[in-house]
Amino acid sequence: MTLKPFALLLSLLLMASTVVRADDDDTPGKNRASIYTQLAAEYLRRGQLSVALDDIQRAMEADPKWPAARSVAGLIFYQMQDYASAQKQFQEALRLAPEDPDANHNYGWFLCERGKAQDGIAYFLTAAKNPLYATPEKSLIKAGDCTAKGGDLEGARLFYLQALKARISSPLARQQLIELDLKRNDVPEARRYMTELQKLVQPSAALAWLALRVERAAGEKDGEARYADLLRKAYPDAPETARLLNNQYDAAE
To answer: Where is the secretion signal located (predicted)?
Structure first.
């Protein structure tokens, strides 16, 4: 249930598919750039990096000033472990659209993945503060993740709470709070957010596993046994069930 790196592609696709106004200069080029960018993002999602790279190069040739193409190029180069090229493309996206929340979010993600937490958090906050940003909670959650990586659990929790304030219905903000409260040994808070989360999302192996770990931390043997039984019967082949059978109770992912 944890946020995967390329969950950020959802907002990126929205940015890439921005409607081109009829009075824009070089509208055909912008249309081609938008289409190729979306194709590249989809191939990237599938793990077909060579095809994605071909399409993003076509997008940048169609319109060198299309910011979304630069962001997708950055993601592609990152997956290819060409970090210098990835950084160059992310920075070019921001040069072209310095206030764009998606460009800021994606570069913040890159910096956090590269171990530059404080720099990355600054870009997440720039994204979240943009009044036109449709999903500020996404950037606040990633700021929390980045902060937690550095060991500052209290600081991370504040970001998750801000995310929840920005989007009260956010399941991911609650999930991250649960994981964090388990680490902080604040079991009552973990159980409270667990109850809320179960009302927001469909049953799954990941949800059952998280609930099991909360019940285990609370010393609720009956609840723990109930979720263990659910995992074994309803999700016998799930990775979470394998963790249960291997007694890997600290495994969050």
So the answer is: 1-22
